[in-house]
TrEMBL record:
Recorded superkingdom: Eukaryota
Protein name as catalogued: Uncharacterized protein
Protein's membrane topology: Multi-pass membrane protein
Keyword Translocase: no
Subcellular location: Membrane
Keyword Disulfide bond applies: no
Alphabetical UniProt keywords: Membrane, Transmembrane, Transmembrane helix
TM helices/strands, residue ranges: 56-76
Alphabetical list of InterPro entries matching this protein: CDC50/LEM3_fam
Gene Ontology terms: cellular component: endoplasmic reticulum; Golgi apparatus; plasma membrane
Taxonomic lineage of the native organism: Eukaryota, Sar, Stramenopiles, Oomycota, Saprolegniomycetes
Family assignment from sequence similarity: Belongs to the CDC50/LEM3 family.
Amino acid sequence: MAAPSPPKTATAGPEVATFAIPTDSTMAAKAKNRPDDSNFTQQTLPMWTPILTLRWSVGVLVVGTIACFALGGLVLHRSINSSVYRVVYDSLAAVESNQSDGRVAYADKCHLATPREANSFSGTKTCFVTINLQRDIVGDTLVFYELSPFYQNHRRYMTSQLPQQYMGGWQVGDTTSACDPILTSPSSVLCNGTLCYGTNKSRQHYPCGLITSDYTNSTAWTTASPGTGVENEFFRVWVHLAAGNVLRKPYGRVAVRNLPAGTTLTFAVQSNYYTDGTVPVLVGRMHLLKLVGQGRKLSWSAK
């Protein structure tokens, strides 16, 4: 018999890595999020890149010029032919002059000569603004008030407020520098009926800041007075800052639509807001009121 062969011994050497051959199921699982191999999904669509030649440049400039002239002419036409009536009621110089859009009765009562006469809320400060419509107003007739000049776009004025107070996120005793220079009133006389704190018994303004403290409060009620403060829509309109030096804000609308020419509108205005400028009442359509007064500037800017 042949002798058995000796057992094989393990030989030392580097380990060889093994790789699993991918199957169809594993390849499908890895490629399930892969986009389609199309020009659209792979972003390889053919594109047209025009060469900026002299003809192209001149053509683009001519088309843009024609569009600007057309837009400017439209704005100028709507501004000139707008059915907007503007009557100043607090300036004696303007009231005594001939105002083509209306007249003011008892104008001296609405004129505030000094800041001490403001915020009186007295019936003796009432005048009557009468406007005679010379053209038909189709749709809603809106009432605006205007302050000129009034710079709500001033940087210091714009930052003097705390929007969290408008949403109720404020507690008594909280301090902030965002409302400087108006956060509290140091005089204890102003604490009547309000909550005062501190050693000097000062009253905390809520909301605070220049914007809320300058809130115009001249009134022209036709019904019972609505709510006040942050729940008042007039206040919400006021804190939406104007971009120019002519502040024009919506106040209300006439209940009757489609007013014909010859209609007479009379407003009982109580003057409580002191200003060095003029405070007129404006009546007309909304889209026209946005253009009137600045329509010619806009038209020439467009041109």
